[in-house]
User: Fold this.
Amino acid sequence: MEKIRIGIMGYGNLGRGIECAVRQNEDMELTAVFTRRNPSSVETVSGTAVYGVDRLLQKKDEMDVLMLCGGSATDLPRQTPEYARHFNVVDSFDTHANIPQHFAAVDQAAREGGKVAMISVGWDPGMFSLNRLYANAILRDGKDYTFWGKGISQGHSDAIRRIPGVKDAKQYTIPVESALASVRACENPDLTTRQKHIRECFVVAQEGADKARIEQEIRTMPNYFADYDTTVHFISEEELLRDHAGIPHGGLVLRTGKTGINGENNHVIEYSLKLDSNPEFTACVLTAYARAAYRMSREGMTGCKTVFDVAPAYLSPMSPEEMREHLL
Amino acid sequence: MEKIRIGIMGYGNLGRGIECAVRQNEDMELTAVFTRRNPSSVETVSGTAVYGVDRLLQKKDEMDVLMLCGGSATDLPRQTPEYARHFNVVDSFDTHANIPQHFAAVDQAAREGGKVAMISVGWDPGMFSLNRLYANAILRDGKDYTFWGKGISQGHSDAIRRIPGVKDAKQYTIPVESALASVRACENPDLTTRQKHIRECFVVAQEGADKARIEQEIRTMPNYFADYDTTVHFISEEELLRDHAGIPHGGLVLRTGKTGINGENNHVIEYSLKLDSNPEFTACVLTAYARAAYRMSREGMTGCKTVFDVAPAYLSPMSPEEMREHLL
Assistant:
């Protein structure tokens, strides 16, 4: 069997996750990892060769799909259009508001290069988006809800760490159970920000720091915490490392809707994820879409694609006959 | 806006559901209902014209998609290949074991006729199949579980009604909560038939019938009940009509799996449906796939398709730009 040759650009949590995911897919093999750091300073979990980013174009013919593992703030807006001229690529661009302009830039580059570029792959955007689309197409008269958590929010944890007197911190986003129950009961609640999620913070204070002031600064921080019911726990560094070292996340997408001649019947569609490792799960989704990018490119397709544009069959290593027999 | 013109072949619960669903889709209109009964004996819920099945081919140019609402046992194996030569069609063929031969027959007919034929659309097969495929493509090292219910099983209710002394009956299939909890906890249980579902029966006995004998016959009925923990309640006809008149159903598809260099992280993907009306929800799914059949046919595609072959974007009435902005 000819294997799909995967390259990884950027070796952080997501890149490591992709390295692990490729090992679980028998029809794929990892060619190389590329980094902007000094390659000799990067050790991969399974001994994959590491090169500086300057070697990327030289190795173009050794890869079928390049996985872009940079951040959405500054890396991907530049990298995805640049690399989509030369490679089939997959990225996890997740700045919702900027997706239209990212799509346009990547689409032009991928068309000019004759490549397939999958953007905004992961779980939100990604699997959650798919579930919103399917549920909306089915239940036309209904209402959508997305809840995140329980899980670590990196941005909110970082915001706490920037407060003077804070040594380290982790922040969990948690759906409000009563809100979820109301949605599932088809009560169609209109939920405020505060009614949907609570925020729980575990903070390691520097010695002698004013904990009351830190707690107050967290609770009143605009955008991040002021609109939420926020709990702050001060714990030791040992406790933080012992009990909060993971990167769990997850969430739920629900749509409730009515059918019948007078809307007399209610329906609930619910999709949920409980993830021990946010980056490893995201990596698994990107890896499945790498298979799709490879196949769609082989069929002659080009341009920017999102999860909405990919027929599910492209994601599975099974043949169409096997899929119909075992999964349908 | 040019509307997608829908025809309905067969006017039972599913056909009525499609009539209601089309009314919820602004880009569609219902052309006609076709029946094997005397058309003058059929009254549609929204006054749609009813014709005998002999008029179907005459009206060919008035419909973009024909919805086949017959049963999987005898209707669809004959109807879908026959009509796929002349119409884009959607069916809900759900005899899993016979899908390969149904696919082959329909594919040949649809290709010869230059039409698109969507088969096995609904929630299982259908949305549950999609969720099995997506979850398997993402979590490669994992285990699948499908639970059905709580809901009415038509086949099991019919089986009870055939027992001498039974006037009427309804049977609910119910997932076993402890089994679900074990799956969600990533314990990867191997579950027997008995461990996954219980069966609860509400039976109206004829006057003077031997209830102990009826209960015994139900509990020991091979294939239907013998392998399950089955509860039998005898109730009055009034109670059956009052409390068990609906056709609710639903269920869950779960996949749990491991990621990481040593499989150290667990993940749970769960999709669930809670449906007040099984046929009306199924009808909504078929209606969304009618939109896809229409669009794929306009793009020149032909042949038999399943939900695996349909890019999600084809299902939504939104433009690609709207989808990316509002759903991604």
